[in-house]
Amino acid sequence: MDLNLTPQEEEFRQQVRDWLGRNRPVALHQRGEVEGKTWVQRAKNWQRRLYEAGYLALAWPREYGGQALDPMRQAIVSEELMRANIPGVVGSNSISMLGPTLITWGTEEQKRRYLPKILTAEEIWCQGYSEPGAGSDLASLRTRADLQGDEFVINGQKVWTSGAHIANMMFGLFRTNPDAPKHRGISYLLVDMKTPGITVRPLVQMNGEADFCEVFFDNARVPRASLVGELHEGWKVANTTMVHERNWLGASPQRLFDKLLERARSQQRGGAPLVSNPLYRQRLADIHIEVEAMRLHALRLLSNAIHKRPGGVENLVAKLIGTELNHRMAIAGMDMLGDYATLGRGEQRAPDRGVWSATWFGSIARMFGGGTSEIQKNVIAERGLGMPKSR
Amino acid sequence: MDFGLTDEQEQLKTGARDFLSNECPSAVVRKVMAEESGLAPDLYKKMAELGWTGMIVPEEFGGLGLGMLDLAVLLEECGYAALPGPFPFSSGIAASVLRLGGSPDQCQRWLPELAAGRLTGTVAIVEEADSLDAADIVLAAARDGAGFVLNGVKMFVPYAHAADFIVVAARTDPGPEGLGFFVVEGGANGLTSRILKNVDQTRRVCEVKFDGVKVPAASRLEKSSGLLERLIDAGAVIVAADSLGGSERALEMAVEYSKVREQFGRPIGSFQALQHLAAELVAGLEPARSLLWYAAYGQDAGLDDASRAASMAKARLSNVYSRTADQSVLMHGGIGFTWEHDIHLWFKRSRFNDPFFGDPVFHRERVATLSGY
Predict the structure, then answer these.
(1) Least packed by Cβ within 10 Å: which of A23, A102, A179, B253?
(2) Would you call B276 and A309 a contact, using CB atoms and an 8 Å cutoff?
(3) For chain A, percent of residues with pLDDT exceeding 90
(4) Same domain for A344 and A296?
């Protein structure tokens, strides 16, 4: 156990901090309060600046735009971004999920064609996985991609596709062999969203925003070169992405806890702040302990990665506990606000500019997005604890 | 940066697992449970030969001079085995109070023999109020010539009936700074210990009466300012480490049982009701292990937030152990409620650990106070 950074790492941290101090992005938080196109352009510009400064995808190989640094450097940058209260970049799903998948499975041509533009945010990607009939049972997906000559012809529908309306490209799973067992007839394709035959319809979410979409395919033709990995082997390819997605969704909860504590200090009831009410103190401390446990647990997983220790079941729990903790914090904030909790964004009486109800909605989405808590528990029990298969 | 165990600590852990599975299987634990003194002297001797009894005792006093993280790694294995006897209370808690509060002479008087396993010590803090709050410590230490005379009752003192010395927290003056810690010899006049009938038979705890016990001034630990808080830090980590190992064992037993017990024509572990329960338990346990490592390391490295980290680990692991043990019994069904099945050893031990050295409510309040809210 040694929690000290090397002098080089300390120096690097200071560089990042200084740079962020001079280069804060403008109003990236107020998504939903800014007109959509303006927000997207701002977010792209910011990602590009961050990349050009050398603070994005530090662990990627040099030839594809990375710096081949160890995961510690990336972790330092993430921590500093969090500390500066800067939200995740607009291309975070392609950086965390698609990038590592392409690095593992892509052809040389695919890597050179796609990876640099992922980093510069010149191309924004969406993930085409879920379908109306394929959620937790993703492998039952039915959107067809039939190989005809040197093209795939795609027909069917994807749903809950976050950001499809602003995306240039989709990475997705498609049924290429309907006769094979369900895991064996799927292929992983990269699809240009401008392909004729693709229609995107944003769905209005419970929070009033329209971020996730339905995507319809009607004889959309994409070249055979869009295939990542072997034909019909897309399930294997996608599993790389899903592992990365789980890490990506377990973001640090420290920021939200700070807000919660601030709320408990400022919210008065009966002439005293809620933070001095024994029940709220206990609840806050209990959450605080979980927040700290998450922080330390992330350090442990990072150390496993740096020191190439395989680790065990501890690697599988981050998504489950991180998203459940996020939800607990949102609920605690709502409880403290009482009637004020119901006031939404745009209402001048809403405390903290209505952030609590937005956080509450978001916390619900995180618990099912990228694999429900129940699916996480299946994985933990079967892969982590070796319990017999339930199916 | 490495948030993990060293190779030496990994070896200590696997060595302890092997040793205890051979020397302290449940048959041995049960034998000690049935004896009145609950001491397991033969086993204790072997542990002393391995150096365990002097693990955190400084080398100048005959110990190995290792840290709290090393001890925590070892105590996790002791919890896993449900090791009976005074080991954690003597070589962990009593060694800590001397290491933290004793003068060189005081350490020299007790620690070498303790490290060698030739004698055991214990620490007496809580009284009838069952509280670690300094204001609830009222056992009187009145000045009496060159020494002090002690009058009062201590509760839940581990292995006091067999201890060669007891470090007792007593009130010399009013107010939070008016506490003294005195080393009282086990055979002192006016000292009586009675073993309490405790459901966790892997442990012995006593009511200890001090009826005009005279102690010399030199028996008062030199550095008493802030000692109670630092002792709580050490005790919290020591008990939490046992809870971590116990949780791991209880869950492991339940999971293994679920793989072999069949109902409706299939192993019950294939039912999601049990899978999800087990997943929730391990998802509580693993981050708590991260908390514990950090808390132990915090004391070794002298981190500013070491006290808070200790309280976080204790609060969390009390809850984790109690819940894991409860649910693990339930996963066993009827067989888990029998005396014959071993799961009740950990079930009962979890309830001992939950409040010992501060219950979760106490430690959460301490987290809040230390964090400034």
Answers:
(1) A179
(2) no
(3) 75
(4) yes
Q: From CA A221, how far away is CA A198, in angstroms rounded?
A: 9
Per-residue pLDDT tens over the stretch B294-323:
999 999 999 999 999 999 999 999 999 999
| A265 → closest Cβ in B5, B293, B373 | B373
Q: Please, which contacts does A100-108 make with residues 24 or more away whose CB atoms are closer than 8 Å?
A: A100/A240, A100/A241, A100/A244, A101/A171, A101/A188, A101/A228, A101/A237, A101/A238, A101/A240, A101/A241, A101/A244, A102/A228, A103/A60, A103/A61, A103/A64, A104/A240, A105/A188, A105/A228, A105/A229, A105/A237, A105/A240, A106/A228, A107/A225
Question: Does A377 reach chain B within 8 Å, measured CB to CB?
Answer: yes
Domain span holding position B55:
7-119
- Asked whether residue B188 falls in the same domain as residue B277, the answer is no
Cβ separation of B270 and A388 shorter than 8 Å?
yes
Query: Average pLDDT, stretch B150-166?
Result: 98
Cβ-based contacts of B3 with chain A (< 8 Å)? 1, 3, 296, 299-300, 302-303
Is A381 an interface residue toward B (CB < 8 Å)? yes
Q: Which residue has the higher pLDDT, A28 or B245?
A: B245
Q: Report A:302-321 residues touching B (Cβ under 8 A).
A: 302-304, 306-307, 309, 313-314, 317, 320-321
Position A270 in a domain: yes
CATH number (domain holding residue A182): 2.40.110.10
Both A255 and A225 in one domain: the answer is no
Interface residue A390 vs chain B (CB under 8 A): yes
Number of domains in chain B: 3
Question: Does B335 score more than 80 pLDDT?
Answer: yes
Instruction: Give the CATH number of the domain where residue B176 resides.
Output: 2.40.110.10
The predicted complex's ipTM stands at 0.97
Q: Are residues A59 and A137 in the same domain?
A: no
Tokens of A259: 């807000």
Q: Is the pLDDT of residue B18 over 80?
A: yes
Q: A318-342: per-residue pLDDT in tens?
A: 899 999 999 999 999 999 999 999 9
| A284, closest residue in chain B (CA to CA) | B368
Q: Would you state the pLDDT for residue A246?
A: 44
- Predicted confidence (pLDDT) per residue in A132-185, tens digit: 999 999 999 999 999 999 999 999 999 999 999 999 999 999 999 999 999 999
Q: Are B139 and B169 in contact (CB under 8 A)?
A: yes
Whether B270 and A387 lie within 8 Å, measured CB to CB: yes
In total, how many domains does chain A have?
Answer: 3
User: What is the span of the domain harbouring residue A78?
Assistant: 7-90
Instruction: Give the tokens for residue A311.
Output: 């680790």
- Residues of A taking part in catalysis: 245
φ and ψ at residue B214, rounded to 5 degrees: -95, 130
Residue A249 is predicted with a pLDDT of: 40
Q: Please report residues of A whose CB lies closer than 8 A to that of B270.
A: 387-390
CATH code of B356's domain = 1.20.140.10
Residue B262 to residue A370: CA distance in whole angstroms: 33
**What is the rounded average pLDDT of the residues B23-51?**
97
Check A387 against B258: CB less than 8 A apart. Answer: yes
Q: Do B69 and A1 touch (CB under 8 A)?
A: yes
A2 touches chain B (CB under 8 A): yes
